[in-house]
Amino acid sequence: MAAFTPSAAVNKRRFLEAYRLASDDGTAPSNILAGFRKTGIWPFNPQAILEDPAAIGGRGTSYRLSLTPWDSGTPNNWPWDAQARR
Predict the structure, then answer these.
(1) Is residue 73 a part of any domain in this protein?
(2) Among candidate residues 75, 65, 62, the one with its CA nearest the CA of residue 45
(3) Which of 13, 18, 61, 70 matches a 20 to 30 Å C-alpha distance to 51?
(4) Residue 77 half-sphere exposure, CB side, CA atoms within 13 Å?
(5) pLDDT in tens, 14-56
(6) In which domain, by residue range, is 51 found?
(7) Predicted model pTM
(8) What rounded mean pLDDT belongs to the chain?
(9) Residue 52 lies in a domain
(10) Residues in Cβ contact with 80 at an 8 Å cutoff, skipping those fewer than 6 apart
(11) According to the 3-state scheme, what is the secondary structure of 29-67?
(12) How far apart are CA 29 and CA 10, in angstroms?
């Protein structure tokens, strides 16, 4: 197979070969584990993603994870709730 160069024509066969090579690299166990580690999925670290400025869209800003209990109930301050109580 010819080398992948910017000037080479891309046909179906070349595209599929390039896709296979990229897919093999992208799904390597070491790459998957590195992604899990960086995002805090494994080992579990929910603060990891909050400290990454690129992930939160800020510039040098970090956020602290709030561990307050979550109420799974429906909020009672929605407009249709207020109308129903009248």
Answers:
(1) no
(2) 65
(3) 70
(4) 0
(5) 899 989 999 999 999 999 999 899 888 888 888 888 888 777 7
(6) 31-58
(7) 0.45
(8) 77
(9) yes
(10) none
(11) HHHHHHHHHHHCCCCCCCHHHHCCHHHHCCCCCCCCCCC
(12) 29
